[in-house]
Amino acid sequence: MDNPPNGLPAVEIRGLAKRYGTFDAVAGIDLVVPRGELFALLGPNGAGKTTTIRMLMGILQPTAGTALVDGLDCFRDRVEVKRRVGYLPDEPIFYDYLRGRELIHFVGEMHGLSRKEADARAGPLLERLGLADATEEFAINYSKGMKKKLALLCAMLHDPLVLILDEPTNGLDPYATRELHEMVRGEVARGKTVFFSTHLLDQAEKLCRRVGIIDKGRLAAVGTLDELRSSLPKSGSLTEIFFAVTGDGAPASARNGDPPAAGNGAPPPPRDSVPPAAGGAPA
Predict the structure, then answer these.
(1) Comparing C-alpha atoms, which of 39, 27, 66 is closest to residue 218?
(2) 144, 169 contact by CB (below 8 A)
(3) Can you give the pTM of this predicted structure?
(4) Which residue among 58, 183, 188, 230 has the highest number of C-beta atoms inside a 10 angstrom radius?
């Protein structure tokens, strides 16, 4: 899919919030990701990264605020958003007794691709991801890493404007991780936008010019590494910035003056289901 020159940011989030009872899973996030950027959303476990991504994908309805992709409301226009987005969930779920090739055809058909077109697009990706010999195997026999690679292929199959990747290297070996990094860099070089969440700070530091750090549901800091360093008493690595921003002694300037999120003692929100054969196919 070509990137239309409409001047809109790839991702625009304004006052985005998700509340479960008195627990603020996400609390009033504001964020703009321009086209052609490789952006990482960082945060501790339970900080709100996955909840934010599920709202971007229209899986969850926000309690307040808006999330837009290419100018489209992520919940109200979620079918059209999924035509523009390739989504890789943290834990992909597939129909166990469909073969890899059948899953590729299924996702391709959801995006209007014939089986021939889907096979032509999938071929190079299968080779790069080391799945070419596994397409006739049932998904139930795939390892966690193989499922993650197949889900990445499905997310890229329709050549989306935006890739939204939730912990994309979780479960991948070092070779597959290196290949994924090269692939997302290549997509950005083609003018695509990549928005991903991770708690692996070294990867974000190597890949991204700009990052956001979410903590207790709030966007505690966002900017380039140099911009984030300027809020600290001395310069440091992204790891040092992360601990300063999310720790009890974080500088007020780095935390944007936000108070702590309420309801930390509340039970965690329910786990949301991920559509089978997840790969950004329209629901």
Answers:
(1) 27
(2) no
(3) 0.83
(4) 58
